[in-house]
Amino acid sequence: MDINSMVSKIVDAERIPKQQRIDFERAKIDTSISAYGRLRESLDTMKNLMANFRQEKAFALRSVNSTEENIVTATATTDAIAGKYAVDVLQLAQSHKIASDVIPDDTRFGPGKLQISLGDEQFDLSLRKNSRLTDVVRAINGASDNPGVRASIIKDRNGPRLIVASDQSGAEKALTIGVQAETGNDLYRLEYKTIEQRVRDLEQAQEEALSLLGMPSEPENEVNPQQEVAEAQEVQQPADEGEGKKDTAQEATSGRLKIPFLAGPKRHPAP
Questions:
Q1: Is the whole model's pTM more than 0.85, yes or no?
Q2: Could you report the per-residue pLDDT of 195-237, keeping only the tens digit for each?
Q3: How many angstroms separate the CA atoms of 89 and 58, rounded?
Q4: Beta carbons of 133 and 155 less than 8 angstroms apart
Q5: Is 107 exposed, middle or buried (0-12, 13-18, 19+ CB in 10 A)?
Q6: Residue 50, exposed/middle/buried by CB under 10 A (0-12, 13-18, 19+)?
Q7: How do residues 36-87 score in pLDDT, each as one tens digit?
Q8: Does residue 242 register a pLDDT over 50?
Q9: How far from chain centre, in Å, is Cα 230?
């Protein structure tokens, strides 16, 4: 008789039904947990959707239809008033153009450097001595880092002029031309600055002039005339004469006492 086999069969007979019940309960619990997780996920999604419905704007969405989608497009916020609107074109965007003064044919430029800016983009040109106006045009048009500036020469009845134009429209693509050369160089005839730049240059020149003369741009210490009068009265009053004090004070307040008003350290006339 195989004792080990009999013991194994008896143990299995006792274990298998219990193991099956345990596995069944575990599967049931896992299914419940999974279902609860899916339910919670669905509730969270619904909660997020309902949060948008609480806002009034969710029911006031606006859309825009244009009769010329290739010309005019628009978007509307929830605050827009429903209706039909017409778009009037008051001004077309144009590219910036600069025309110089009349430059005689025998004018020679250089040596020096031109700094041409197109909005936020800038490129520099170095010109040799005795360069002609045509050399300036070739240098501008042939620059490898040119962001979109074109130069040409136009001759009117007064003479030739340099025309510099941008190939991009809009106020943010304005042109400026700066010059780095010796004083008196004809390159400065091509310089062009905006009004804001000219104002900054004037302010800087004024500050430098005041600094050179040793004058502060703003007074550091302001003198109070009433305080000067009061201190002058104390200096002018005799130490031992009561009536003299009264007369001197009256003269100071009536304006008959001459007191110099000086900026900086206070000075008083000798008694």
A1: no
A2: 666 666 667 667 767 776 666 555 444 445 455 444 444 444 4
A3: 33
A4: no
A5: middle
A6: exposed
A7: 888 888 888 888 877 766 666 666 677 888 888 888 888 888 777 888 888 8
A8: no
A9: 51
Q: How far apart are CA 149 and CA 95, in angstroms?
A: 10
Mark 128-145 as b/e (b = at least 16 C-beta within 10 Å): eeebbbebbbebbeebee
Alpha helix stretches (DSSP H) within the chain = 3-53, 133-142, 195-212, 225-236, 242-254
Domains of the chain as residue ranges with CATH: 1-79 (no CATH), 95-212 (2.60.40)
Two tokens at 153? Answer: 């020469």
Query: Scanning the structure block, which residue is given the tokens 């009264």?
Result: 246
Place of tokens 């040109």: 125
* Helices of type H across 143-260: 195-212, 225-236, 242-254
Residue 19: CB partners within 8 Å, gap ≥ 6?
Answer: none
Burial of 162 (0-12, 13-18, 19+ CB in 10 A): buried
Pairing of strands 112-118, 149-156: unpaired
Start-to-end CA distance of the chain, whole Å, equals 146
Q: How many CA atoms lie within 13 A of 169 on its CB side?
A: 4
- The reported pLDDT for the residue numbered 140 is 93
Alpha carbon separation from 226 to 177, 212, 257, 269 (Å, rounded): 54, 33, 13, 16
- How many Å separate Cα 236 from the centre of its chain? 60
CA distance 134 to 154: 11
**In whole angstroms, how far apart are CA 244 and each of 230, 259, 271?**
16, 18, 12
List, for residues 1-49, the tens digit of each pLDDT value.
Answer: 677 777 777 777 777 788 888 888 888 888 888 888 888 888 888 888 7
